[in-house]
Specification:
By secondary structure, this protein is α/β, with parallel strands linked by helices. The chain folds into two domains: 2-98, no CATH class; 103-302, no CATH class. Helix content is 49%, strand content 16%. It has helices at residues 2-35, 40-55, 59-71, 77-97, 121-132, 149-156, 171-182, 195-204, 235-243, 281-298, and strands at residues 117-119, 138-141, 161-165, 187-190, 208-212, 216-225, 228-232, 247-255, 260-265. A seven-stranded mixed beta sheet has the order 1-9-8-2-5-3-4, with helices on both faces. A two-stranded antiparallel ribbon has the order 6-7. Helix 1 packs parallel to helix 7 (171-182), helix 3 (59-71) packs across helix 4 (77-97) and helix 8 runs parallel beside helix 9 (235-243). It is globular.
């Protein structure tokens, strides 16, 4: 009888969760559709103001404050709160911008239209070099400004790229976001056990690969970030080792009133080698992490401080 009751409880729990997920999924999809009928900048400004207020009451605010105090011990409490308010502002804007990814205008020298995303000539030249190179390139980005934009820029410059991403757990939300991304990004590869193999095969076929590299990975390698040890996935360095591919960083910075962006792609980073001349995976991940730290120090209010990067 007890075993039957447990099974019944599990069935009811699963069905209840399925109903909740379906309801939440439909609600988010409806919200995304409604947002797309409005003015992006006006809605993003409102979401930013709302998150500045709401964020301070959420548990993640304490996580963000603790992270900032540890990362910037020289800053005053007022400076810490100012940065954290900016991080909530940025997060509110990112949430709205998901609905408009395929509508953001990228600078095109051949068109006089105003652009939402701008870049310097040197970045355009580097993308051209990558497109014409004999070997594919690995790209890394971080949760700065809007972390979806590096993929937009790569697609704009016609790079055949595979993009590693973490899909939302609710199917309806995942489908809606993929639909928006599909027309303006490369091929999306969901994270999971089969992802490394798929990315490696893509590189072997000449496709470029991009991913975010500033998340905690319990099975990762140890690196130092803002003076503290943390773990990071070594996947990008392992892929570079597999095919001797160059690694470049791509970042974006919010400009003006928060609704415009400036982006850049770096030169290939120097890849540390071991005594046999092979790429050293751990030291390469430290080099990449140091680049990300430099980006965050320049614009700390645009990074995602609210997650547990150090554990």
């Amino acid at each position: 009888m007890k075993a039957q009751l447990r099974r019944l409880g599990l069935i009811v729990s699963r069905r209840f969760k399925a109903v909740i997920d379906l309801t939440v999924g439909w609600s988010v999809v409806a919200l995304l559709r409604a947002l797309r009928r409005g003015d992006r900048k006006r809605i993003a400004n409102g979401a930013a103001r709302f998150m500045r207020y709401l964020g301070r009451w959420l548990p993640e605010h304490r996580v963000g404050r603790a992270n900032l105090i540890a990362a910037f011990p020289e800053k005053s409490p007022a400076e810490i709160e100012h940065i954290l308010a900016g991080a909530w502002d940025n997060l509110g804007r990112v949430a709205v911008e998901f609905a408009y990814l395929d509508r953001l205008q990228i600078l095109d020298p051949n068109r006089p239209d105003p652009a939402d995303i701008n870049y310097e000539t040197v970045s355009a030249t580097r993308f051209k070099e990558i497109r014409e190179a004999s070997r594919p390139t690995l790209f890394f980005a971080a949760h700065l400004a809007n972390w979806e934009l590096p993929a937009l820029l790569a697609a704009f410059f016609k790079l055949d790229a595979l993009l590693l991403y973490r899909p939302p757990s609710i199917r309806a939300i995942s489908d809606a976001i993929i639909k928006i991304r599909a027309g303006c990004m490369g091929t999306l590869v969901p994270s999971g056990y089969g992802a490394p193999i798929r990315l490696a095969r893509g590189l072997e076929q000449g496709q470029h690969v991009g991913m975010l590299v500033d998340q905690y990975d319990a099975r990762g390698v140890d690196v130092t970030f803002f003076g503290r040890s943390c773990k990071v996935s070594p996947l990008i360095a392992q892929l570079a080792l597999h095919l001797e591919c160059p690694i470049r960083g791509v970042r974006f910075v919010r400009q003006h009133d928060g609704n415009y962006f400036w982006g850049e792609i770096s030169e290939p980073i120097d890849l540390p080698r071991d005594s046999k001349g092979r790429i050293d995976v751990t030291r390469t991940m430290q080099s990449i992490t140091s680049v990300v730290e430099g980006w965050v120090r320049e614009h700390p209010e645009q990074w995602l401080w609210q997650h547990r990067r150090w554990r």
